[in-house]
Amino acid sequence: MQQRLVECVPNISEGRRSEVIDAVASVVNQVEGVKLLDVDPGKSTNRTVITFVGPPETVGEAAFQLIKKAAELIDMRNHRGEHPRMGATDVCPFVPVSGVSMEECVEIARKLAERVGNELGIPGYLYESAALSVERQNLATCRKGQYEGLAKLETPGGKPDFGPAVWNEQTQRSGATAIGARDFLIAYNINLNTTSSRRANAIAFDIRESGRVKREDGPGSPIVKDANGEPVRQSGTLKAVKGIGWYIEEYGVAQLSLNLTNIRTTPVHVAFDEACARAQDRGIRVTGSELVGLLPLRVLTEAADYFLGKQQRSRGISDSEKVKIAVKSLGLDDLAPFDPTKRVIEYVISEPGNAPLLDMNLKAFAELTASESPAPGGGSVAAYASTMGVALASMVANLSAHKRGWDERWSEFSAVAERGVSLQSQLAGLVDADTAAFNQIMEAYGLPKSSQEQKNLRHQAIQDATKHAIEIPMQVARLSMQAMQVAKEMAAIGNPNSITDAGVGAMAIRTGVKGAILNARVNLADLEDDGFASEVREECSQMWQKVERVEAEVLQRVDEVLGA
Length: 564
Prior knowledge:
By secondary structure, the chain is an alpha+beta fold. It has three domains: 5-181, 2-Layer Sandwich (Formiminotransferase-cyclodeaminase, Chain B, domain 1); 186-349, Alpha-Beta Plaits, CATH 3.30.70; 362-563, Up-down Bundle (Four Helix Bundle (Hemerythrin (Met), subunit A)), CATH 1.20.120. The protein has 17 helices and 13 strands. It has helices at 18-26, 59-73, 102-120, 139-142, 169-174, 197-207, 268-281, 297-310, 319-330, 340-343, 345-349, 362-369, 378-401, 410-445, 452-493, 499-524, 530-563, and strands at residues 5-8, 11-12, 35-42, 47-54, 89-98, 124-128, 177-181, 186-192, 212-213, 233-234, 241-248, 253-260, 286-292. The radius of gyration is 29 Å and the shape is globular. The two termini are 40 Å apart.
């Protein structure tokens, strides 16, 4: 299942006192579910960039605690540094990584800003996507005048979006903070088969949004100026891209050094292809590329989807396979090996043992199921059955997409395979979830019951755990019903040579649906919420009947093909 992750990159106005930096950064890991990724201090700037990720439910809390600690330990009245700044926590942007929209990040930023203003008395501004006005989308506008100009807080044009609009001893100590939401910024270098930084620079100018200064008649000729006497610029081909060309002595090649400031506008694969085209125009070839720092998984999976689409191949494959395709297509291992486990945020933060059942081989899973332990039981096996069933249906879709003579239908089957792979991932995540739900019930029954208060708490915990243990198999059943439609579709229009695979997939999914229903029903007897129980029973009855009908339709189609 896709993780819901938000990156937060607060910049604090301290880069020299390690004890302060450590104290501020340490509060992040005290918030459940949040992981500190990087602490990067700069002595000359007297500024530290702190990077952490977490779910949208708790990442705002971590940011609040960091801003609070920074305000306690950093006195802006004594701060000096080369980088523009205006507060103890200068900026605090939220960035969607996976499973989270920009709108959700905006909501996190605005709620945090309100809390920082009300509870900490720190004034500040909302910027980029979180801005309340167009004028304040640009961080430079919000930070104009820097700390020394914060008397503007008391002026109409400088009034903060949150916190006190006064310049007193408290705000003089904390300064102001800019809180925002923005997309991921990618530092991306593209390798060229030349040592010429001049040629690399020319390609960078072709690509970057700001382009180059326009001249009357080519290089060396007079600069074209506007009515105000300012140089006229000729825009490059890509929006939201900054860049220069340089020579890297370590590698002995020239590179394009690009900053992709909005990967929704210009993703990595688009920048790569455009660089290839513009380099070829100048008699130069791109040999590979280099991604700097950590990046979201979607950067690579979207690149893989792009290149698979150009090849007219199905996109309905696993993320791990897509990562391999992206690495090869972008030449990310041109200069040095590219290790996704150390470079992709979702992989870096993954904890070993989070999915003990799913990580087992089939033999170990079967042996554990057969043991005296009551878990894993029917619920986990049902989820696994549906996982394998929809995997078979996805396989049929992929085989159909690549069938000779069906080339014009590749996108049709690719779309089906993508649906199937998505359902496969979600169902696989529920294999461990079902066993965890059972264990939660056992833990609730094990709570103390010496006093009436303890009895009440234990009773409520049992009811909550029982309800959860019903909801998990119901999720399995609902997702399995969607998976059954994928199997039905592939039986109807997929490669007839794989018709039995679609049939086996449908039967496995049927088992998953009915198995999940049985596991939901067995827990209903202990649930006191009669309304919820009644709704579950009705839904189970409908799904039970429907899955039998769909399975029969699939098997009828199988018989038709086999009997032909």
